[in-house]
């Protein structure tokens, strides 16, 4: 399976990543990606940029090195109410929003509390994807969350970084999550979670996992640029005029 879109990348603005937007875009072009999402950490993450950073993404060109640029954010899930650390006004300026658990922000608790937080953030309508759900520090009720995500048209992420050692113990959980999504009819997105340019568009372990569970291409929103843009349209995101070239791709 080829994957055309990387929906989770970080730049030097995240504070613990090491490449610029231009460097990431050049790496994405080398990998043959069509679209790259810029998803720096939202403000409550230590070292993360001010909210102006996200509001000002309008200055980013829609194409860099021939790769389409999606303006996004990786927000932090703050509590069991499913609140996130990004103002609605800023979210409305962006194309794409991920919500993730991060240990410095949400202290790991029990599966019941994690499940409640995920259900609430999914039902809020504010985010398009749940980032790195395979993290073993944040156990949750797979069936309940996956079914809720399918109902509310939110995708769960299969994260290449999680599968390559950044979150030890994620491999089997990610496989189980993918199998459950296949069974219950949800969809996934694919993110490198790159914190250095060379990892942008690296889906080596994602592809191995999807092949292992025989995951259907039609349930992968990043399979083609048009499938990703169609998903954004389903989410009510405004069309991006410059990306009309992708609609049949």
TrEMBL record:
The Gene Ontology biological process terms listed for this entry are: bacterial-type flagellum-dependent swarming motility
Q: Which residues bind Zn(2+) 2?
A: 16, 41, 195
Q: Which UniProt keywords apply?
A: Hydrolase, Metal-binding, Zinc
Pfam families attached to this UniProt entry: PHP
- Recorded GO MF terms: phosphatase activity; zinc ion binding
What InterPro entries is this protein classified in? Phosphatase_YcdX_put (IPR023710), PHP_dom (IPR004013), PHP_phosphatase (IPR050243), Pol/His_phosphatase_N (IPR003141), Pol/histidinol_Pase-like (IPR016195)
SUPFAM superfamilies in UniProt: PHP domain-like
Q: Which GO terms describe its cellular component?
A: cytosol
> Which residues are noted in the entry as Zn(2+) 3-binding?
74, 102, 132
Entry's family note = Belongs to the PHP family.
Cite the PANTHER family for this sequence: PHOSPHATASE YCDX-RELATED
Which protein is depicted?
Phosphatase
Name the source organism. Photobacterium jeanii
């Amino acid at each position: 399976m080829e994957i055309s879109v990387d929906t989770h990348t970080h730049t030097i603005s995240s504070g613990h990543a090491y490449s610029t937007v231009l460097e990431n875009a050049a790496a994405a072009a080398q990998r043959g990606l069509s679209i790259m999402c810029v998803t720096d950490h939202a403000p409550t993450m230590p070292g993360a940029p001010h909210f102006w950073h996200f509001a000002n993404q309008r200055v980013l060109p829609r194409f860099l090195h021939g790769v389409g640029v999606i303006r996004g954010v990786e927000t932090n899930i703050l509590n069991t109410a499913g609140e996130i650390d990004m103002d609605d006004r800023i979210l409305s300026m962006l194309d794409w929003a991920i919500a993730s658990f991060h240990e410095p922000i949400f202290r790991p608790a029990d599966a019941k509390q994690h499940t409640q937080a995920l259900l609430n953030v999914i039902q809020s309508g504010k985010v398009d994807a749940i980032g790195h759900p395979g993290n073993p520090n944040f156990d949750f009720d797979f069936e309940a969350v996956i079914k809720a995500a399918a109902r509310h048209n939110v995708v769960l992420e299969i994260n290449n970084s999680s599968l390559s050692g950044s979150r030890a113990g994620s491999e089997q959980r990610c496989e189980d999550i993918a199998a459950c999504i296949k069974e219950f009819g949800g969809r996934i997105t694919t993110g490198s979670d790159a914190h250095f340019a060379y990892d942008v568009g690296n889906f080596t372990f994602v592809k191995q996992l999807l092949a292992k569970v025989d995951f259907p291409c039609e349930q992968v929103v990043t399979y083609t640029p048009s499938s990703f843009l169609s998903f954004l349209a389903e989410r009510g995101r405004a069309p991006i005029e410059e990306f009309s070239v992708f609609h049949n791709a």
